[in-house]
Give the backbone structure.
Amino acid sequence: MNTRTKFWPLVAGTLTSALLMSGYAVAAPIKCDDAYNYMQMDDSQAAACLASGKNNPSFTGNPANDIFLNNAAGTGYQFVEKSENAGNPTALYNLEYGQTDSTGTWEFDSSLWDSYSTIAIGFKFGGGNKADNWFVYELNSLVSSGDWAYFGKGNGLSHVSLYGKGSVTVPEPGSLALLGVGIIGLTLVGRKRRAN
């Protein structure tokens, strides 16, 4: 058997193994813990747990009272929207969520990514007679929907809030025109070389 005959079965076996193994790649949960209760989101949706706590938080956007904006992890963020009605979209970015006792989904209009380079989502769970729990996650870029799971006591999800930071830079028309002129120039130089 020559080298060429041995090469192709090896390539085919490697590709088959790679495809089979990629089917087993499972997203890992990112846990956000307040020392008493915790929640988690999938790492395909969230980049990190930014902050969490056990008290009666306010996610209202009022800088004086908003517990996340007053936390070091909230530096640079600004309040975008709060949704308190499960399943009912709000006006600004159609943030909505659905829930059961311990799991749920969330979704907002993906056009929010046109305004911010980083988006965080905050969850507040009611604690009944006990202190409430809150958790804030930084989302992966361009993610606008996902799932959550809560592991703790209390009255379930109270509300969800969105925060954004960093502006999205859009190339100026002059920069795009300059890029276009450069590409045309390179094309003409290439044609001239081939003609000679």
About this structure: The first strand starts at residue 29 and ends at 33. Helices lie at 3-22, 173-195.
